[in-house]
Amino acid sequence: MISMQNILERFIRYVKIDTQSDPKNPAFPSTEKQWVLARLLEQELLDLGLSEVHLSEQCYLTATLPSNVDHVVPVVGFVAHIDTSPDFSGNNVNPLIHRNYDGGNIVLNADRQIILDATYFEDIQQYKGQTIITTDGTTLLGADDKAGITEIVSAMEYLINNPEVKHGKIRICFTPDEEVGKGAHQFDVDHFGAHWAYTMDGSQIGELEYENFNAAKATVTVKGINVHPGYAKHKMINAITISQQFINGLPSHEVPELTEGQEGFYHLHNLTGDIEKTTLEYIIRDHDIEKFKERKETMFSLVSSLNKKMGKEIFSIDIEDQYFNMKEKIAPVMHIVNIAAEAMKKENINPIYKAIRGGTDGSQLSFMGLPCPNIFAGGHNFHGKYEYVPLESIVKATKVIINIAEITANKYQ
User: Is the pLDDT of residue 276 over 90?
Assistant: First the structure.
């Protein structure tokens, strides 16, 4: 039987370790502190009795649970990421545990009057009566993706302790730097040796995803000319104010806060600079590959037209593709999605098929030759102080992993 208390203690232990990645650091991994959790997990996997436990020089931690059946079964992998988002503090995480949640608001921090409003974050009301784990209002929680790590480790522990549950060879991997888009960059697919895998990195219970955004990042640089403001007429070019022309040149309604489902967007997430140089940092997202290409072309064309208007090269842009929609690679092997759906239904979970409005390691891994749908990890409101996860969702996800292993072994007898 799965121990909820052991799972809770494991999750709390993991989230208290600060593992934020750093998008500004080109090193890999981007922060040294990711190694702290990686080494803790390495020892834990060894103590559990997994084989081929290996922590690479790039901070990829892999391990194997050998098959306990005498017939050939495809090797299935499970993947989660070690790092947490750089967008909000992950230092000194102090998780709060709210047992038998009553369906109302949750006070995260009374001194600062920080409240998780159940009418604003209405999804939480579906977990009435359950144990909710939240932040204390000063940091993120880190359920993205330490819930996923907890689920994978707990499932491996259960399978080791319950050999009557039949399964083929299972490979697991914990990756660094997923939150900064580099989680799969140095992943050795051949060494991993799985026929397919699942990232445990989704949100609410039941999510089963095999489609995600096509993604790129764009950096727009605006060059200005600074002169004394008293003598600036027809001389000064203020890069800060001129940059507004680029911002206004994009469709104002195609932004994250006004889109949903499979609607794409342009997202200005950082603006820095002064009169002589201002930098705009965007991410570009769309599920449709042709629309994705059109979005990039729109930005190039806007730069060209603004420079023509200004009569000089004021604007420049650099666009870098980040990842692509994994649906192209999953569609030919939909049986792996069906196995996950069957594993959920065994726990009375209705699969929620939805296109990810983001990306996971699985999107890149699928294009690297490892088909990799995404399964719920259970958390909500990632990357901020209102993040929470029901303990029961972590337990259910753990059971889904176990079921996938057992179903796969049975299907290939």
Answer: yes
